[in-house]
Specification:
Distance between the termini: 32 Å
Helix content: 40-55%
Shape: globular
Oligomer: single chain
Mean pLDDT: 85
Strand order of the largest sheet: 1-3-2
Largest sheet: 3 strands, antiparallel
Structural class: alpha+beta
Length: 227
């Protein structure tokens, strides 16, 4: 299911931008408010944008139905991604063994196998994130539409997702037992998104983000009771 985390001066502006990006009707979108934002002092100093997470079924998103990629395009994208990664990893001396790539929902997914897998991953996945960022820029160069590049090594991403889900379950249990807010340690944007998406359908709690920069974290609180 395609989704986008997007910001705006107000919640309504962020929602409208997200719906326009996905090309879907508002009634077909699932909308989660991650941060209500703030206007700051006198509406100027210290203002913070609102952030929402919007998802919708692919069949409802006109911008994704006509992606423009043929079978030949897809093959070229996968080959180009593997070529870029091979060049970078060989220059880094990572003992590259193989790269398996696939394509789904405008995303090239590449799994790396190497002798020095822990170095490819890096601390908290930072090297993987850097490889992903650089590869996405190079793969999209001179291509007629933009695609995402997701890179993994030794199934680190899947293991990390499971770890975050376990932490989220513990947070939900704490909130349900105590009625108090639970705050995680600071996380990067990708990790925060995983938790928000995982918890978005739980009617008993609400997740939110707070803090700035490297200190930004996810919080979980009891859901507001309807009147």
């Amino acid at each position: 299911m395609p989704e986008i985390e997007i910001k705006g001066k107000t919640i309504e502006e962020a929602i409208n931008k997200g719906i326009l990006h996905l090309g879907c009707e508002r009634k077909d979108a699932e909308i989660k408010i991650l941060d209500e934002g703030s206007t700051g002092l006198f509406g100027l100093m210290g203002s913070k944008p609102a952030t929402v997470l919007i998802s919708a079924d692919s069949s409802k998103c006109s911008n994704l139905i006509s992606s423009g990629e043929s079978e030949d395009d897809i093959k070229k994208l996968c080959v180009k991604t593997e070529t870029v990664l091979t060049d970078i990893l060989n220059r880094m001396g990572m003992g590259l063994k193989n790269i398996n790539s696939s394509y789904e929902d405008k995303t090239v997914k590449s799994q790396i196998f190497a002798d020095n897998g822990s170095l490819v991953i890096g601390k908290n996945g930072q090297t993987l994130d850097a490889l992903e960022y650089i590869s996405q820029i190079l793969v999209n160069e001179n291509f007629h539409s933009k695609v995402k590049v997701n890179i993994d090594c030794e199934n680190y991403r899947a293991k990390q997702i499971n770890k975050l889900k376990l932490l989220a379950d513990k947070a939900v249990d704490y909130v349900n037992r105590t009625g108090k807010i639970y705050r995680f340690e600071p996380m990067n944007a990708k990790e925060r998104k995983i938790i928000h998406v995982y918890l978005k359908d739980n009617p008993k709690i609400e997740s939110f983000s707070e803090g700035e920069g490297a200190l930004r974290k996810v919080g979980v609180k009891p859901a507001k009771q309807s009147a």
